[in-house]
């Protein structure tokens, strides 16, 4: 790794799904992603092989990186030229490597620069970021002018128009000549006022920089995928409260001149759903709330982690406009500090506060974020006032296009993004639109050219799958359109508010449709809940295939179990699989398949269906699963042993077929044991084969005992036996499930 990156720890860059950190030499994991790198350039040194497997296996499988070895360490290189793109807005707690192809380029998202890099640009010793002289000029003027504009082009948003219009939704009216304008003007006394006229919600401050050029990222926006999610869903339940609204205006004042920092936020909100109970926001838990008022009166509120729910004293009417004000104090910390310490330790990094020498890093959740606003056809204005220490100013990371006179006498600099936000970019055309009218719902299909060889078959499959989910899990999702968007080029699948897959793969499409019921973007608190929703979504997909082709579904489940067993997951508790955890990947999906398969085996098909229908009808968290299934199924006996082992424990059950012997009454019997630290206490089946080839299934229930004797009363002598032949039990170890009779077998 270059010595200039080893010299000084600079900061974090967190973009949608990607974590970038410039590290000091003491760290065990570093990534070098600055400037344009040729193919074969070294990009990472990793000494932890487990981390290698989890962080780079997918990239290697896609052919994006190649693995080598140098000095006893794994060295990874890009298989083609890399161009890094600065991106300030990003999801702050979804951390996984994501790379995108852009023509013949491989693009990685990053939002922080090293101190040495900025100095080199200013001194003319290094090409400006993205090779643009305008960026160098902007940096050179920092501290010499009092006003500027942060502007993001709306080109990506404009690509949404045909998609939204075809789905029967209102399309946004974009102002500013097709641009979303952020302007800033100095108000004196250290105040920098930022104004945003924006149809896509929330202001964005790219960088706030001290005179010594230490980068400070202040993002009030980000997570555009959530905005689209909110635009296409009827309503959202968070913290068990109906909260769906539009933001008409937002005035946010942040005083960063001392400690603790002070935040004063005033909003004008329009309720969009009749009977809403209040509002939900994302606020860094390091803030201490001083007061919350609704229309001038004190309002009740409740916080859980980063989520803040404000209650209305009465049910709100659709179209009602209310004024909300929140005051708080604190020194917000990076959201990584909210991650459990053991998860942080797994990454081998030192979680840091925003107040480090020479560095302040403000993420979107370190400040303030409305959670349920909708995408509307009207511009709305936000005004953000930052009270900054003397000498601070702002710098944009885009490419300057033009300079003009802006609102409030501000100097308007128009910038172009190097790359649109990923969540908006995925809707790019050209595509073919097919409107699929079902009996009780409508599915809108967008097929990019070359994506689907059989459009009629794909349309029919999506309708059949969605109909199965509606029948099985319930929910009145037919009030809003379902959107299926199939891309032509290879890549990773998504489920925002609409379903997006790259190429037509039926299992992937069925999985993503399942996220309309089980979605981490909607009902999940990623700071407190495991990735159970991916496992349940994948298992729902298998339930659908089971209704169409039981034999194919059995093969799918066997494959899922095999992947689960091959990922050393007996050491990982399912509750600890977070979106950012090293064990995420396939483990979050296929360990979940195993755990929910075991639950259906215990509850029975009808009991499991009652459970999932109840689950789909309410808001919940991971800890609610056991309480909910007991409430809706009335299951007896108690299944607390299963939830302790499967969901909160390691979930590595082990059934051992010990042997075959002759009982006292002359019959043969098979001895089956439940071994290990997670004893299986449910039913078990054993398939026995006699000398003449006859097969018989023996059944029994452990009922708390460690061993079980299953008597065979048929004709012939047993020569072999297999425990759990159809893999109904989430048995992590299959090596001891078979037994073959030998001449040495005797009485017990």
Describe the structure.
The protein has 748 residues and is of the alpha+beta class. Among the domains are: 3-110, no CATH class; 431-647, Neutral Protease, domain 2; 654-740, Immunoglobulin-like, CATH 2.60.40. Helix content is 24%, strand content 32%. It has 16 helices and 41 strands. It has a nine-stranded mixed beta sheet with strand order 11-12-13-26-17-18-24-20-21. A five-stranded mixed beta sheet has the order 30-31-32-34-33, covered by helices on one side. It has a four-stranded antiparallel beta sheet with strand order 3-5-7-6, covered by helices on one side. Helix 11 (506-514) packs across helix 12 and helix 13 packs across helix 14 (585-616). The radius of gyration is 28 Å and the shape is elongated.
Give unreliable regions as ranges. Answer: 1-55, 80-188, 192-242, 333-380, 389-403, 406-429, 477-481, 520-528
Q: Largest sheet, described in full? A: 9 strands, mixed
Query: CATH architecture of the domain at 431-647, please?
Result: Orthogonal Bundle
Question: Helical element count?
Answer: 16
Mean pLDDT: 58
Quickly give the structural class: alpha+beta
Strand order of the largest sheet: 11-12-13-26-17-18-24-20-21
What are the main properties of this structure?
748 residues; alpha+beta; Neutral Protease, domain 2; Immunoglobulin-like; nine-stranded mixed sheet; five-stranded mixed sheet; 41 strands; 24% helix; elongated; disordered N terminus
Can you lay out the helices and strands and say which pair or pack?
Layout: H1 3-7, E1 11-15, E2 18-22, E3 29-31, E4 36-37, E5 42-46, H2 49-61, E6 65-70, E7 73-78, E8 82-86, E9 99-102, E10 105-110, H3 115-122, H4 133-141, E11 147-153, H5 155-158, H6 160-166, E12 179-188, E13 191-198, E14 207-209, H7 224-232, E15 237-238, E16 241-242, E17 245-255, E18 261-271, E19 276-283, E20 288-294, E21 297-298, E22 301-304, E23 307-316, E24 321-330, H8 341-347, E25 368-370, E26 380-387, E27 393-395, E28 399-405, E29 411-416, H9 422-425, E30 431-437, E31 442-448, H10 455-473, E32 482-487, E33 494-495, E34 499-502, H11 506-514, H12 532-548, H13 550-565, H14 585-616, H15 625-633, H16 640-647, E35 654-662, E36 668-675, E37 683-690, E38 695-701, E39 707-712, E40 718-723, E41 738-740
Helix pairs in contact: 10-11, 11-12, 12-13, 12-14, 13-14, 14-15
